[in-house]
Specification:
Layout lengths: L1 E4 L19 E5 L11 H7 L19 E5 L10 H9 L3 E5 L6 H12 L5 E8 H7 L7 E10 L8 H5 L11 E5 L5 E5 L1 H8 L5 H10 L3 E2 H5 L13 E6 L7 H10 L4 E5 L6 H4 L1 H18 L1
Parallel strand pairs: 1-2, 2-11, 3-4, 3-5, 5-6, 6-10, 10-11
Antiparallel strand pairs: 7-8, 8-9
């Protein structure tokens, strides 16, 4: 089903939640404003109304209400999820916005695996950019992981790297914008040059916000981007959802479509005119997708 949303704030323009979770939806959205998330409220809100103390570790009877664990990518940090976190918490979801080390796929996936192992009850993992590679490599036995939401995120197969996926299709302009810091411990950290940050990373944000993000960006170890994924990608056998921007200059939209198709995603949202930071520029669309994933847990038990 192909839908187009209106740029207005009218919730009636937002596509309804489909009853068949396995049905794949491709949505090209120009914008999704505050009221749009209300279309999912009745279903997801009711599904997530269990008291939070039922999820506390060490108490019996884990709740079916999921905990959402979010992993940021390179050249960003955990606060990049702030608006999405606020929206999810309005629906009584427990959320953890993790600080990803950005030291390597195996290292970072082990860190997130250890983190989700502390969570009682079902888990939904969300990953932006390189964070998608991280969640794809989380140990599937570390927690009750029920869903994966890729927010302009990599979904590598066994042996694939982020670098290989971003160059699989034309369109990425990241490489010429990078600057390096040589590390005494070995290797190099990568940053996006601040003067080039907005155009490359977040062209749909204003100058003030993009300048703050450029100054606060966290570097990634160069080798992390070429590190091959592990042998057991989590998206095989775990339901997935994908949202990305039409004008992503880090990961071409064609690569996102390819990864979503390969993963048999339950829903794919391509946001017209959006940059690589679709979770920041379109937080309502992003939160709504996570709510759909949360709702699917309750429909399917």
């Amino acid at each position: 089903m192909s839908c187009t949303t209106s740029p207005s704030h009218n919730p009636s323009t937002d596509p309804p939640v489909t009853s068949g979770v396995s049905r794949r939806t491709v949505l090209r959205a120009t914008a999704l404003a505050g009221a749009a998330i209300g279309a999912t409220s009745a279903a997801a809100g009711a599904a997530t109304a269990a008291p939070t103390d039922s999820r506390r570790r060490g108490t019996g009877g884990a709740s079916k209400t999921p905990t959402v664990v979010l992993a940021h990518g390179a050249f960003a940090e955990s606060s990049s999820w702030d608006t999405v976190v606020t929206l999810l918490k309005r629906h009584r979801l427990s959320v953890v916005s993790a600080a990803v080390p950005l030291r390597g796929v195996a290292y970072d996936a082990a860190y997130i695996s250890d983190l989700v192992a502390t969570v009682s009850g079902p888990v939904i993992l969300g990953g932006h950019s390189y964070g998608g590679s991280v969640i794809s490599n989380v140990d599937r036995g570390s927690a009750d992981i029920r869903g994966l939401v890729y927010v302009a995120g990599f979904a590598p197969a066994a042996g694939e790297s982020a670098q290989a996926l971003s160059s699989k299709f034309p369109g990425s302009t990241l490489a010429p914008t990078l600057t390096f810091v040589n590390l005494r411990t070995g290797g190099r950290d990568l940053y996006i040059e601040q003067a080039k940050y907005r155009a490359q990373f977040c062209a749909d944000l204003d100058d003030r916000q993009s300048a703050q993000m450029a100054a606060g960006q966290r570097p990634i170890l160069e080798s992390a981007l070429s590190e091959p994924a592990g042998p057991d990608p989590l998206w095989k056998g775990t339901p997935s959802w994908f949202i990305f921007g039409e004008l992503d200059r880090n990961i071409p939209a064609a690569a996102h479509r390819y990864m979503a198709e390969r993963a048999h995603a339950r829903q794919v949202v391509e946001v017209v005119g959006a940059s690589h930071v679709v979770g920041i520029s379109h937080p309502y669309a992003t939160a709504k997708m996570i709510l759909r994933a949360a709702h699917s847990i309750h429909r399917n038990g």
